Amino acid sequence: MIELWEATVHAPDGAVLVHPVTATLTERRVAVVGANGSGKSTLLRLLNGLLLPTSGSVRVHGRDTATDGPAVRRDVGFVFTDPEAQILMPTPREDVALSLRGRVRRKADDDAALAVLERFGLAAHADRSAHGLSAGQKQLLALASVLATGPRVLVCDEPTTLLDLRWRTHVDRLLADLDAQVVTATHDLDAARRADRVLVVDDGHVVHDGDPDAGVDLYVARMTAGKLR
Ligand SMILES: Nc1ncnc2c1ncn2[C@@H]1O[C@H](COP(=O)(O)OP(=O)(O)OP(=O)(O)O)[C@@H](O)[C@H]1O
After folding, report:
1. Could you write out the DSSP letters of every residue in 39-101?
2. Atom 20 (ligand 1): residue with closest C-alpha?
3. Distance 42 CA to ligand 1 centre (A)
4. What are the mean pLDDT values of the chain's consecutive 10-residue runs (229 residues total)?
5. Residue 121 phi, psi (nearest 5)
6. Mutate to test the pocket of ligand 1, among 32, 38, 183 (most ligand atoms within 8 A of CB)
7. pLDDT at 103
8. How many CB atoms lie within 10 A of CB 61?
9. What are the structural domain ranges in the chain?
10. Using an 8 Å Cβ cutoff, are 136 and 182 in contact?
């Protein structure tokens, strides 16, 4: 469960990037939609304490991101739009194994890492350079490594943007089947309609919070009518 109470984000120059948001997210699948630069990523970064609200609070499973950041981040996995930001090791196998084992290296984890990579179509690349992967493969690796940590909540910032149709479908299914709560910022409106709850962000304001179809319809109407703030 994620609880935002009057959570607000100001830029250093005082501009309001996220206007006060109060919401209790209990649904398993929550989608966040909005135009480029509307504040989706900023809102998502609040959810694991990557960014702290400048006023108000954010709690995950009862823990405040401001006072209990490390514990929150153990529970909340975050998949960035740019996979380069989270590939830490030279090869895919090592990257996933690091997530599985923490700091102690064990052969069993290297084998388990290969099984994880298999699920993401990356087994053949397990021992090649992670930075030599294609953009879509890097996105799959970033997702595989985060899922290997077994998060209770997964926050994804446009996780399928770089993927071809086959892998987008695969990742959509995989996310749908996870036990973890998943909060996703997405420009894929069909995926947003399949969520349990949709938040629409417009110029830092949450202008809809609730029914997915109504939210996506509102977003499309605002975009096509040019009624962005
Ligand atoms: N540290 C910061 N200082 C000033 N402005 C910022 C800062 N971080 C983000 N912004 C601005 O806040 C706004 C929202 O950015 P954000 O990345 O949250 O948008 P987004 O909805 O995720 O966009 P996209 O769909 O393009 O990824 C943008 O105008 C961005 O330039």
Report:
1. SHHHHHHHTTTSS--SEEEEEETTEETTT-HHHHHHHEEEE-SSGGGG--SSSHHHHHHHHHH
2. 37
3. 6
4. 96 94 96 95 95 96 94 92 86 88 64 87 92 88 89 92 85 86 94 96 96 96 74
5. 70, 25
6. 38
7. 47
8. 15
9. 2-224
10. no
How close is the Cα of 15 to the center of ligand 1, in Å?
11
Structure-block tokens of residue 163 = 């993927």
The b/e string for 27-43 (b: 16+ C-beta within 10 A; e otherwise) is bebbbbbbbeebbbbbb
- Secondary-structure class of domain 2-224 per CATH: alpha beta
- Tokens 């739009």: give the residue: 81
Pairwise CA distance, residues 134 & 118, whole Å: 16
Question: What token pair was written down for 175?
Answer: 């996310």
Which residues does 162 contact at the CB level (< 8 Å), separation at least 6? Answer: 83, 135, 136, 138, 139
Tokens 């996780």 — which residue? 159
pTM, whole model, 2 decimals? 0.90
Residue type, 85: A
Ligand 1 pocket at CB < 6 A: 11, 17, 34, 36-42
Phi/psi at 211 (5° precision): -55, 125
Q: What is the value of ipTM here, to two decimals?
A: 0.94
